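Hey everyone, long-time lurker, first post.

I ran two proteins through the pipeline my lab uses and got sequence/structure pairs for each. Pasting them in order. The first:
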Amino acid sequence: MATTTFERAPAVPTRPRKLYQQLYVQVLVAIAAGILLGHFWPEQGAALKPLGDAFIKLVKMIIAPVIFLTVSTGIAGMSDTHKVGRVAGKAMIYFLVFSTLALIVGLVIGNVVQPGAGLHISPASLDAKAVQAYATKAHDASIVGFLQNIIPDTIVGAFASGDILQVLFFSVLFGLSLSMVGERGKPVLDFLQALSAPIFKLVALLMKAAPIGAFGAMAFTIGRYGIGSVANLAMLVATFYLTAAIFILVVLGAVCRYNGFSVLALIRYIKEEILLVIGTSSSEAALPSLMEKLEAAGCKRSVVGLVVPTGYSFNLDGTNIYMTLAALFIAQAMDIDLPLGDQILLLLVAMLSSKGAAGITGAGFITLAATLSVIPAVPVAGMALILGIDRFMSECRAVTNFIGNAVATIVVARWEGELDHDQLRAALNGTLPEDVSEIAAASPAE
């Protein structure tokens, strides 16, 4: 069907922003200030939790309309609706392969470094009640229940709850329906494309509050848990961060190089969003902005709209690394020898449990509980060992997941022939206009 396209205005040279006007600098300063406040005045720092929570709520408020507009207009503008299934299929293959690689990397490095060796902790000394709530949620999480939950009870309910996969499910169906009605759907498509401009501008306005949210969230984390809690289990934290870095730079780096771009250049391009994820410990906080930037970097709207939201539930590289590494740490700390058979079982169970608990708040800790509950050799109560430092590892989980989904989107777009290589090169070289939201809003649906 015919679609309305918006002519992209030529890039107008703009005066470079001063350093203090850059969002990533503001977020970085806010994170540092939050750490200092939480460390020296812990009570006041812990009391600032509402600032971080309020910012995340602001962003979640806009996620549903961003996904709906991006996906529905992208699919409706496709000349070949079979592309929807093809893009989704390629994305799921990518997710399966690299999620499994992440689990294997965590397992290998956990065996090589052995971060829990030498602690000699008795299982009887652990507080099982501390992790009881997580174990209960893990028991309730199942793959069948997860798949059933993708279908919303009502259309309004999907948007009201803000469930990413429910909104995505409806958006795909609506986009397909809109493309099938032909010219009669053109006024609706025109309206949705016009509505994209103010919605993306709203995202840009909300991002101005990012430093406040990052400051409050980081002050709470340090004030509530203290830097000392990291030092007590520093080996596990350091091993996890090292493993995540190896996965990003080596595994994802090789994928990026094979597909014609640099992972380091991509990280520089989305540095503001990465810092926001670090500050809030939530990859959802940067989801709308990531979708804008990937579209501005040359990925077609239809690919961005399908791959990014789906990846937030199915492509959790950081969470997968964390699960195998943390499980091995708990076993090593309690002097439990896990034979190769049990480690393979751990890997297989983690592949399933990571999908079954996707989308649940605190998914990393919950999926670990779900995994350990199937491995009788390692008591679930052992999770109490890492409960105090889990918050400090959640930032790394979120950042790894975030970068992994950015890479996945560009790779799938290239596989599908829906990537503008010149535009990607300009984005990664920093030669795009600064106002990315205007580029994304003005992009044609196809």
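...and the second, right after it:
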Amino acid sequence: MTQQVITTQDGHVQILRLNRPDKKNALTGDMYLGLADGLNTAGENPNTRVVLITGTAGCFTAGNDIGDLLNQPAGDHPDGDNRPFSQFIRAIDGISKPVIAAVDGLAIGVGTTMLLHCDLVYASDNVRFHLPFTDLGLVPEAASSALLPQLAGYAKASEMLLLSEPFDSQTALSIGLINRIFPAASLEQETRVIAHKLAAKPPQSVQSTKALVKKNRGDIASVITDELRVFTAQQKSLEAKEALSAFLERRPPDFSKF
């Protein structure tokens, strides 16, 4: 597994740590594969009862590494379903064991949408959540087009996904995206305590309860497939190329010709 995703075992808790702090933990294809491998391994390991996903001090993840995204031509993946991102989302959606996230600093793009697949989410008091898909000429992913309206309601979800404006931990708490807010200095310690508390409960009872709760969310796998198809098509568009290039070139995008 890539050293940009570090896996450690703490009793019955497996920790997956995003470890690319020099790039604000921006996710590459290799990192997505590392996360998918960690989740799949945790699902098969009888010693693992809970998975904890976190980042480094001051940063969860800045989302996709745009340069890496541009170097993965959408045309190589007609429906997007074999991309590293897809393998990660399928893994986090499919794991039977509870997944907890400890979120500090930046949580951009998939750094926010992956939280919709976690069973418990704890954030520091200085997190900047952001869903910048329309700003980048793209569309929502990770089933967020279905899960976010279920969570926040249609109007609030539309505001977040269409206007792409950042929001803070208090807003995330108010819509139910996160469970609690902790000071940044104690976030991981507090989250580990909760993870071990959950891991000490009867594992089959915990996993069966998770399965029952998830069953009422609808056919999320189909939503993931639909989003991947539209995301892949949109990535090929001229407006996405302009938005992504403008991001890398640190200039305002020009959509006037579209």
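Reply from user beta_strand_b:
Welcome! Quick read of the second one: The chain has one domain: 5-185. The radius of gyration is 18 Å.
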